[in-house]
Specification:
It contains 15 helices and 13 strands. By secondary structure, the protein is an alpha/beta fold.
Length: 391
């Protein structure tokens, strides 16, 4: 049996996948498929124009299917490429089964072949009112193409029960065509106890002695302004020496100037710290240093940051929306992300309660062990084998 996987999310320069959860999904999944099923033939679709994947990510026996990008650059190049040129490359690959690791990159497959599509979330449909108010032809075109790709797939893989229900509701896909396969957490995310390492990280990122931590981007659905408002309300509880650390390279994101203005207008410049980019190797130590990790997102198809925080022993306060409660279970404190008073109460409560932090820490470590990348890969192989005799 041979499967051709879309490896473009592994490449720097292809959309923003490599830096986001889709890239991490590809990095974790693809190498495990060959290791867990040595008889599986793997082809990897790559884009000739972009940077090759990191060494060791592409399985040694994999056949590389290079996709030549059109020479003429245009505004909608990636969309045109996906619809017109990628299908030609897929046909030339000789494959009969194709797995696109995100619905954003799904292309028509050759007649008589099998299409498997991972749908991470339905953000454009669920949060349509936030991302495209009024008549927006480009947004409507994207929604149409997304729904078309989802409906055309022979099997949908999604990463949470919440996303599954959204796919059924917004794309009209029958439940029988959907498989829920949760993601994993990398083994590098674990508690850091070494005092020297913790001190070095604290100095490197200029972290305060005690702080709440947030990372995960500042786009609209992440609700970071709501977190800042809740933090300000919490400070009115006469809590001293409390800081909020916002991690990640957010300075280039569209909402950064407005976020800075909110910090200034709230007079929180001395209480809120922006670290800039945090190296992946340093993240476990930052999670370990935090009094708690706070994640008030309005919508997630899965939610890597709360899972990583739990794996590192950080108590978690998070949103009660979408897939987040499904990932955190009873190991975290849940709040309505649009109710800053409730979020502030939970933050104030956990700040002054060492016993609660300890209980959440232990529960989070136990919960995080349920999410394993080998389990993700095995379940994905099961989907391939459903079609094995016909592919």
């Amino acid at each position: 049996m041979k499967i051709v996987l879309d490896g473009r999310p592994l490449q720097e320069g292809f959309r923003e996948h490599r830096k986001r959860g889709i890239g991490r999904y590809a990095e974790a999944l693809i190498p495990r498929l060959e290791r867990l099923d040595p008889d599986l033939g793997i082809g990897i679709l790559l884009n000739k124009r972009n940077t090759p994947p990191d060494a060791g990510v592409v399985p040694g026996r994999a056949e590389i299917v290079f996709h030549p990008v059109p020479g003429i650059l245009c505004l909608y190049e990636e969309m045109i490429d996906t619809l017109l040129y990628v299908p030609r490359t897929l046909k030339q690959s000789g494959g009969r089964m194709f797995h696109f690791l995100t619905h954003m990159d799904a292309a028509p497959v050759p007649a008589g072949s099998i299409s498997i599509l991972t749908v991470h979330d339905m953000i454009p449909a669920v949060l349509k009112h936030r991302y495209a108010s009024g008549w927006n032809p480009l947004y409507r075109a994207y929604l149409s193409l997304m729904n078309r790709a989802i409906r055309r797939a022979d099997r949908i893989i999604t990463i949470s029960e919440s996303s599954k229900q959204d796919i059924i509701r917004y794309a009209g896909i029958p439940e029988s065509r959907i498989r829920v396969i949760p993601l994993g957490v990398d083994c590098s995310f674990k508690p850091v106890r070494d005092a020297g390492v913790l001190k070095a990280i604290q100095v490197r990122y200029k972290l305060p002695a005690r702080f709440f931590f947030y990372t995960g981007g500042i786009e609209t659905r992440k609700n970071v302004p709501g977190l800042i408002i809740a933090f300000q309300k919490m400070l009115k509880s006469a809590i001293k020496d409390c800081h909020l650390v916002i991690g990640g390279n957010v300075e280039d994101e569209r909402g950064y100037p407005a976020l800075l203005e909110l910090v200034r207008s709230s007079r929180l410049e001395d209480r809120i710290c922006f670290t800039g980019y945090i190296e992946n190797a340093d993240l476990p130590a930052v999670y370990s240093l935090a009094e708690a990790f706070v994640y008030p997102s309005l919508y997630e198809g899965f939610g890597f940051p709360p899972l990583e925080a739990m794996a590192c022993g950080a108590p978690v306060i998070c949103s009660d929306r979408s897939a987040i409660p499904e990932i955190v279970g009873e190991a975290g404190l849940l709040a309505d992300p649009e109710n800053p008073e409730q979020l502030a109460q939970l933050m104030a409560g956990i700040w002054g309660d060492a016993a609660l932090r300890s209980r959440l820490m232990e529960a989070g470590l136990k919960r995080a062990r349920l999410f394993d990348w080998d389990r993700t890969a095995r379940a994905t192989l099961d989907v391939y084998h459903e079609f094995g005799e016909t592919a």
